[in-house]
Each structure stands twice: as structure tokens, then as C-alpha cells.
Amino acid sequence: MIRAAGVTRRYGALAAVDGVSFELAPGEIVGFLGPNGAGKSTLLKMLCTYLPPSAGALEVCGHDVVRAPLEVRRHIGYLPEHNALFDGMRVRAFLRFMGEAHGLRGARLAARLDEVMARTQVTDVARKRVRECSKGYRQRIGLAAALLHDPPVLLLDEPTHGLDPLQVVAFRDFVRELSPGRVVLFSSHILAEVAQIATRLLVMQAGRLCLDAPMEALRARCAAEGRDLEALVLDAVARDREARA
User: Fold this and answer.
1) 172 part of a folded domain
2) Domain that holds residue 73
3) How many domains does the chain divide into?
4) Which residues fall within 8 angstroms of residue 203, CB to CB, at 6 or more apart?
5) What is the CATH number of the domain that holds 107?
6) Percentages of the chain per state (helix, strand, coil), in multiples of 5
7) Which of these, 89, 163, 98, lies nearest to 126 by C-alpha position?
8) Any domain includes 179
9) Sheet of 55-60: strands edge to edge?
10) Which of 15, 72, 122, 225 qualifies as a FRET site for 79, CA 20 to 30 Å off?
11) pLDDT digits (tens, 9 = 90+) for 115-142
12) Is 83 left (phi over 0), alpha (psi -120 to 50) or beta?
């Protein structure tokens, strides 16, 4: 569903994303890990067609992000790190507007609104204005907006930011429910959070992909080598730095 082949994004002499390649299949929950400035958000913005690659090819559900951006947008749901909402609108009216923007109408729109609001637990603030909602509710409202059109690819940038511990646990369960038949790619800089939910781990460092492996294989390697996951990730980052040097 997602294919990246040698994807690069430059800002002048700086390569924010540098020759990244991977393929993601339906049913995968992919943790996208890296420190601030590693290139995670830049790659997500390219997947969303907000930014074009400087080089390489990037496809979503068989559609190129440069040649067919509208088709790509029809197939993705995106929750950005800085969740921009229309603060003056009431929550249900905002979500209705977002559903209509995705082409939903009539009974289909009403059904999706009821289902998504219930699943993201925002029904109890449906009549509040967005600006009256807490950070945690705003995050869930953004997630509801990303899910309204039932996209096969879900891109989440730091999705648990602002959620309390109980909400984080509920979010994990929710993502597991969403994953069958769908690609879920979520970025984070917290390894423990990624390890709790991801079936595959991608690690970026200074714009490059330095680790790409199934979580099951990483856990088996940890057991065989007597090391924890953090040590394996740090080792991959160190090897990448040495290769650059």
C-alpha cells in the first residue's frame, strides 16, 4: 500500500530525508521512530502530498504522490503533529464539514459520523466548540476527522501527544482494531510506546533509515543476545553514524 524508493527531500544543501526506501503492506502497524529532526514529519508530509520529493518515487495504494496527489489524498487519513482545527466550530459540525470535504453525503455521512465519534469517544463533546475542548479531546477530534472516509492508509504524527495514560491505552486498542486490511504508520520519539503496539519498526536518524525490521524479529534478537530493544536501536543508530563518518 505504501512504497518508497530512494526518496529524498532537500532544503538547499540539507537532506531532511536522504534516500529512504521501504514497502508497507495491509495489516501492518508500523512504528516510525526517531529523535526530533530525524525526518519523520517530513516523510509523512510527502506521503500526504504536502511536500514533493526532491528525488525518488513515493506511492500510496499504487498512486504516485506527485503525479496523482488527489488520488493519494482519497486513500489516506492524516493526523498531523500540530493538529489544526477550526476552533469556532462545534465538534459535530466540524466533523460533518470534514466528511463532506471527503465526498460523504446523506445517510452515509450520518452513519460515519455516529460510528467514528463513538469509537474516538468524542460524542460527549459533540455540541461544544472545538476551542472549548481539552488537548486530549482535540487530538481525538483530529483522529475522528482522519477516519471519517474510512481510508486504507492511516498516517499519524505523534498521535498520543496530549493524551493521559488511560487514553493512550485506549488508543493502542483502537489502532489494533483498525489495522486489519489497513496500513497504520505512526511516528513517535518514544520507543516504549512504539514497542507496545507496532508490528514493525522503522528508525530514522538524520534523514536516513537505519533500521527496518518486524517487532517479532527484534524481540527474538533481544532474547538471543541478552539485550533490550533500546540497546538494539541505539546500536543501529551508532552504526549509521559510523557509516556517515
Assistant:
1) yes
2) 2-209
3) 1
4) 33, 34, 209, 210, 211, 212, 233, 236, 237
5) 3.40.50.300
6) 45, 25, 30
7) 89
8) yes
9) 14-24, 2-11, 55-60, 63-64
10) 15
11) 999 988 899 999 999 999 988 888 889 9
12) beta
